[in-house]
């Protein structure tokens, strides 16, 4: 099981170490960051985040059993008028825990913040269409594919397509209640 805690300056170097290629940086951070990732970029990323009036919350993903930081995730573009936000910067950084369902646990935690705490209506995300394991994780978490933005990002001489996905509050609550319901044996 995992829990989320606010990302802090003391976590910069670990994140920098996890992001080790330009391709991986683009998948993780999009065009907002340049390779190599450095502390100055992370200072800007963190500058207006994680306060009561922020439109971005940035988190470490903590393994509850070990207390170790194993990943990173953010909830940004929080629009309180339209009750929407965007999940981003999803990363299971600790390679020893990849493939063990951590991604779905991370999504559950971030969606609880979005829907239960912030009372949002819609949460979206973008994922490159070749990242089949991430797409499967997001679909298992309740996200629905909305479409593909063709040739959305250029990396070297290639272009990558971006798959747009979202989940609505009623979809979240239907999934969440049905799991609680079945867990109680009813």
In short:
The protein has 186 residues and is an alpha+beta fold. It has helices at residues 12-18, 22-29, 39-47, 102-117, 132-140, 169-183, and strands at 2-6, 57-63, 69-79, 84-92, 122-128, 144-155, 158-168. It has a seven-stranded mixed beta sheet, with helices on both faces.
**How helix-rich are the residues, as a percent range?**
25-40%
CATH class: Alpha Beta
What's the number of helices? 6
Q: What is the alpha-carbon Rg in Å?
A: 16 Å
Q: How many angstroms separate the termini?
A: 24 Å
Uncertain residue ranges:
181-186
Structure explained in plain terms:
The chain is 34% helix and 33% strand. With 186 residues, the chain is an alpha+beta fold. A 7-stranded mixed beta sheet has the order 1-2-3-4-5-7-6, sandwiched between helices. Strand 6 (144-155) and strand 7 (158-168) form a beta hairpin.
Write the layout of secondary structure elements.
Elements lengths: L1 E5 L5 H7 L3 H8 L9 H9 L9 E7 L5 E11 L4 E9 L9 H16 L4 E7 L3 H9 L3 E12 L2 E11 H15 L3
Parallel strand pairs: 4-5
Antiparallel strand pairs: 1-2, 2-3, 3-4, 5-7, 6-7
Key features?
single chain; 186 residues; alpha+beta; Aminopeptidase; seven-stranded mixed sheet; 6 helices; 7 strands; 33% strand; disordered C terminus
């Amino acid at each position: 099981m995992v829990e989320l805690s606010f990302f802090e300056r003391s976590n910069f170097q670990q994140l920098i170490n996890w992001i080790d290629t330009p391709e991986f940086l683009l998948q993780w951070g999009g065009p907002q960051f340049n390779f190599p990732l450095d502390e100055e970029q992370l200072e800007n990323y963190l500058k207006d985040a994680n306060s009561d009036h922020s439109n971005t919350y940035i988190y470490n993903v903590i393994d509850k059993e070990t207390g170790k930081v194993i990943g990173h995730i953010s909830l940004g573009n929080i629009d309180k008028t339209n009750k929407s936000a965007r999940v981003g910067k999803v990363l299971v950084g600790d390679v020893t825990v990849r493939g063990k369902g951590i991604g779905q646990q991370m999504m559950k935690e971030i969606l609880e913040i979005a829907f239960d705490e912030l009372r949002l209506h819609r949460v979206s995300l973008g994922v490159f269409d070749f990242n089949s394991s991430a797409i499967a994780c997001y679909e298992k978490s309740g996200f629905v594919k909305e479409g593909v933005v063709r040739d959305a990002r250029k990396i070297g001489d290639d272009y990558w397509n971006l798959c747009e996905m979202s989940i609505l509050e009623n979809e979240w609550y239907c999934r969440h209640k049905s799991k609680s319901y079945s867990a109680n044996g009813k």
